[in-house]
């Protein structure tokens, strides 16, 4: 069972580092088209920042509560990814052929760029939620069951 | 071709891999496996696969180590059941022979970076030439995995999702 960390150094460093890590994850996600990186790495870094927050501040602290809320988004990333593919179907093309996304005023190449961004967001959300979910499965016990027994 | 950089790297890879297997304290083994992933990431970066190096460093050295440690906190981090016995003669003789056979076969592989190798003449030129005009994505790796090979990535995402669901179904505990 993991509790909040006692050391002031760890807590201060955590509160300084965690926002930076999350900012870096967002940068990796949206700059993945121009540099190494992309949805997968961004999702792992985002999930790792949440895991770090849980390990430092404990599962009962604000980050832990946020991470528990994040768990409700399990599968959301997959829906986003497959949903973009479905929108391509609606647009009249093949599944996951982003050139058929119905966005007015965009050329096919720009639509494909947009499709890459959207699916990368889907992958990142899926990976981040799964990482946090596995950590909760491994290390924590839920208290929500009937406590009066 | 000089081997001043890659030979020490490969030696460190083998040392860390052997150490992760041989060490008895499982927490040390998890950390040694993390350092192995870092050296592997350096190998990927040296081969020019920077995206892969990124993933290896983040997943292999970061996330996997955390998962291993969290698992070990639930159990006994010392493995008392390991009894080292001498390997059988068949393994001592057969494995070097197999290694020599693989080295002999590796001689027929195309040179690294050879533009005429089969992997470099089939679809790679099409992607490299058309990626920027067709998808406006300068990073060809991203355009391949998210657009040209988007279906593979969708199934991969489904695999990750399934892994998370399976972990939750098997491992999540509720205290009653």
Terminal CA distance of chain B? 65 Å
Domains counted in the coordinates of chain B: how many? 2
Shape of chain A: elongated
N-to-C order of helices and strands of chain A: HHHHHE
Number of strands of chain A: 1
Mean pLDDT over the full residue set of chain B: 87
Largest sheet of chain B: none
- Give the termini distance of chain A in whole angstroms: 22 Å
The total beta strand count of chain B reads: 1
- Profile the largest sheet of chain A: none
How much is the radius of gyration of chain B in Å? Answer: 21 Å
Mean pLDDT of chain A, as a whole number? 86
Assembly classification: heterodimer
How many domains would you count in the coordinates of chain A? Answer: 1
Class computed from helices, strands and strand pairing of chain A: mainly alpha
Q: Share of helix among residues of chain B?
A: over 70%
Rg of chain A to the nearest angstrom? Answer: 19 Å
Note the beta-strand portion of chain A.
under 5%
Contiguous helical run count of chain A: 5
Task: Explain what you see.
The complex is a heterodimer of chains A (149) and B (176). Chain A is mostly helical and 149 residues long. Chain A has one domain. Chain A contains five helices and one strand, in the order αααααβ. In chain A, helix 1 packs antiparallel against helix 2 and helix 2 crosses helix 3. In chain A, 44% of the residues are buried. The C terminus of chain A is likely disordered. Chain B is mainly alpha-helical and 176 residues long. Chain B has two domains: 79 residues; 60 residues, no CATH class. Chain B is built from eight helices and one strand; from the N terminus they run ααααααααβ. In chain B, helix 2 packs antiparallel against helix 3, helix 6 crosses helix 7 and helix 7 packs across helix 8. The termini of chain B are far apart. The model of chain B has no long low-confidence stretch (mean pLDDT 87). Chains A and B meet through helix 2, helix 4, helix 5 and strand 1 of A and helix 3, helix 6, helix 7, helix 8 and strand 1 of B.
């Amino acid at each position: 069972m993991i509790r909040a960390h006692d050391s002031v150094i760890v807590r201060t460093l955590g509160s300084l580092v965690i926002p930076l890590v999350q900012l870096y994850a967002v940068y990796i996600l949206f700059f993945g088209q121009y540099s190494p990186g992309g949805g997968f790495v961004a999702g792992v870094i985002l999930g790792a920042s949440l895991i770090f927050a849980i390990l430092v501040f404990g599962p009962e602290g604000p980050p832990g509560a946020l991470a528990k809320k994040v768990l409700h988004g399990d599968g959301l990333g997959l829906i986003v990814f497959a949903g973009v593919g479905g929108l391509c179907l609606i647009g009249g093309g093949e599944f996951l052929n982003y050139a058929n996304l119905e966005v007015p005023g965009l050329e096919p190449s720009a639509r494909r760029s947009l499709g890459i961004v959207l699916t990368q967001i889907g992958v990142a959300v899926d990976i981040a939620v799964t990482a946090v979910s596995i950590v909760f499965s491994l290390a924590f016990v839920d208290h929500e069951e009937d406590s009066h027994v | 071709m000089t081997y001043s950089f890659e030979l020490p790297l490969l030696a460190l890879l083998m040392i860390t891999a052997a150490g992760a297997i041989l060490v008895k304290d499982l927490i040390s083994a998890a950390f040694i496996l993390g350092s192995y992933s870092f050296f592997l990431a350096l190998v990927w970066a040296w081969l020019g696969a920077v995206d892969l190096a990124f993933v290896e460093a983040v997943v292999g050295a970061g996330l996997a180590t955390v998962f291993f440690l969290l698992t070990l906190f639930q159990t006994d981090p010392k493995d008392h059941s390991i009894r080292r016995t001498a390997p059988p003669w068949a393994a001592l003789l057969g494995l070097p022979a197999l290694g020599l056979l693989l080295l002999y076969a590796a001689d027929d592989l195309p040179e690294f970076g050879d533009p005429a190798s089969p992997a470099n003449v089939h679809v790679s030129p099409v992607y490299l030439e058309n990626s920027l005009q067709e998808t406006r994505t300068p990073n060809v790796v991203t355009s391949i995995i998210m657009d040209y090979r988007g279906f593979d990535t969708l199934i991969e995402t489904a695999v990750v999702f399934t892994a998370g669901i399976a972990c939750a179904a098997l491992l999540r505990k509720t205290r009653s």
